[in-house]
Here is the input.
Amino acid sequence: MSARDPRSFVAELVVRLGYSHDTAEALVQQALDAERAEVLREAADQLDLAAECMTASAWSPTEHAAAREWRAAADELRRMADETAGGKDTQPGESTSPAESTPLTVYRASHDSIGVGLYTTAAAARAHCEAYVRREIGDEGALDWIEDDEDGVAELVAEIGGAEDTTGYVVMSLTVASVYDEEADE
Here is the structure.
């Protein structure tokens, strides 16, 4: 039994539905282009998210430059997706996905203001901080989080031998916008 080309197989099925061979080929091509465009847009979304996360935790010019390059790559992927799907030309920074207009909340784990990681849940960010402290103090002592009611920043404290002390580890939530909101600047 020989392997069949999936494209030819689908085109043959479309012809059986009563469409001409040319129409069937065009419909198959349209479906493939739509799928390619969706994959390109999803990759662009992931690059944008990675760039936003890197920007939020970046402390060096090299990291900021890398985030800008990732955003430029995401813009290029969106342009390619629009070209593939025959859609409108997307301008750099312009969103093509409705999900992108929804802000994303990430949680930044840090030690003495130096970022140690970005996470999609506070629990994961806290676990990262706790793992670092456990490496330092071992299994002795109790760890607890004290969360500020006003800004939501949670600080990790350790109790060893009856004395409670701050560890320098904090977790804060960051809202990452995917589009610029001019009114939010005011």
Q: What stands out?
A: The chain has a mean pLDDT of 79. The two ends are 68 Å apart (CA to CA).
